[in-house]
Every structure is written in C-alpha cells, then in structure tokens.
Amino acid sequence: METRTQQHDPSLEAVWHVRQRYWRRKLGRLRLGVEPLEEQLSRYRRVTWMLTAIPSILAAMFVSLFAAFRRPDIGLIVALVLFCPIVVLAWLDLAVLQLRVARYTRELQEYQKRQPSSGGG
Description:
This protein is mainly alpha-helical and about 120 residues long. It has a domain at about 35-105. The protein is built from three helices and no strands. Helix 2 runs antiparallel to helix 3 (about 70-115). The longest helix is centred in the last third of the chain and has 43 residues, at about 70-115. The radius of gyration is 24 Å and the shape is rod-shaped.
C-alpha cells in the first residue's frame, strides 16, 4: 500500500504570495489579515448608508428651499444633479467591493484546500 504524504510546495507558496499582492491591490481599502473581511464590509455598508442619508437630507433641504420660492421642480433637478451621483457611486462601490471579497474568499479557500494539513502524526 502506498502512503502519500503531502509536502510543503514552494511553488504553491510563491503563487499564493503573488495572488495576495494582487488582492491587496484590488481590495484597496480592506486590510487582509488584520480583522475579518465581513467586519470591514459591514463597516463600509454603514458608511454607505450614511452616504445615502446625508445627501438625501441635503437634497430635501434644496427642494424645500426652492419650494419656498414656488419652484420645487428646479430644486428637485438641482438635488438630483448634485446628490444622486454621490449615492449611486457609493452603492456601486460597495457592490464591487463585496464581489471582490467573495472572489478573494473563494480563492483563499481553494488555496487552503491545496495546502497540506498542519497536523502531526
């Protein structure tokens, strides 16, 4: 019977090191290995909600200011032009970040499956 022991593969380590540098660059604001990515993503989700709430309040102020002068239509247009891009880009950025984290997590799990188990025996 042939027993096959998995040994440390230096080429696998080198490839993973290159991939980690790639992911550090792609994930930008998220820090790998410092704290769980889920916690960091939840923090960015809260920031995105704030980037939705604050511009929405400011937009409502613009609409009400223009409504006081009987032109809420212009106020709405100004609010949409000024604040809608901020909200949309914040949510798009969060969505892209979540997709990248999912791809990184899948790749990390594949790497860990190929790693020899660090148990002795």
